[in-house]
Design goal:
Length: 398
Amino acid sequence: MTYGENCALKCGFCLAGLGCDTVSGACAEGCDTGYQGFYCNEKCMAMTYGENCALKCGHCLTGSGCDSVSGACAEGCDPGYQGFYCNEICNNKTFGRNCSGICGHCRNDTACVPFSGSCDSGCEAGYKGLTCTETCGLCRENTDCDQFNGTCLNGCQDGYQGEICNETCNIGYYGEDCHLRCYEHCAESTSMTMTTCHHVTGECLIGCKDGWIGKHCETACFNGTFGKNCAWKCNEWCAGESQKCDPRDGLCINGCIPGFSGSHCNMYCDQGSYGERCLKSCEKCFLKDCHHITGHCAHSEPLCEDGYRGEKCDKECEPCTFGPDCRYNCSNQCFNGKCILESKDIKDDTSQRDNKEFFEDFLPIIGGVVSPFLIILTIITAYRIGKCCKRPKRRPHN
């Protein structure tokens, strides 16, 4: 395996180790795989390999070249290629170095560019970015957005806003293009960062203001209810039909039924008044007090003031009568139905006449009861006197 003067030179890499010409050093059958040149002592040039360096290397990483003998890429394949010789393009929707990447959501389910992962056909609806792996904002009806800046081409879904539709509506708004205001009867939050209604549906998030119910707090309390969640009943003494009080605070809308007062109709009329709005007076009652509804005077003796009569003391005395409850008669001093004397004189005269009439009426009765007792008493007295005064008979002398 030597040649030249004194056989001092070593043959190159002749094919199959057959040796070289002993004079010139040329390999008679050519070079071994991976070598080239007259003496077969030169490795294949970069990016070639094999017998006579006739084969071209595959897509070795960053052009690093392959093994001159086997053709294997020492540092692996460029992105988008695979296989022993790095000459096979990635398949099955993979890409990148060693085909380890998975293609994104390319339009029409096509494969991506094997070395970059980009979608030449564009992205499916709802996706964006070079590799179509980023989701668009909440575009209306999940339609397309710009593949590179993410702008929704047909606007945002209800409840969202912004160029890429990833922002919820401002506080107090909801719905399509965030143009709708939350219902005015939604309860208000004490937090400045919390909206009163859901940004999509408009439903009130923390309930309703007093007097309202429903998902959107659009229905006022009814059937005689009021307050938070319409949980309270209007006072039964509120006047009117059906909804008798303010749905927010229970104030009686139509006032009170006769006999009651106050904004909620929860108080009786003050003493001395009764009836509708407590405007009627019972001042002619002797005690200045009466039933708050009927006006009937509180029980007393007498019931009414001078000159009045009836359960409510609202009737004047009939002709020729006067005094408390009209109990006195002035027929002897009456002219055209009116008493002539002062009421005091008539009362005194009436009182004297009443006493006289009493004795005239009851004297015969007294006499009839007392007389028999007097007669019996007289007989008993006479008998005792006679018995005491009667002398005893003397005995005859012997």
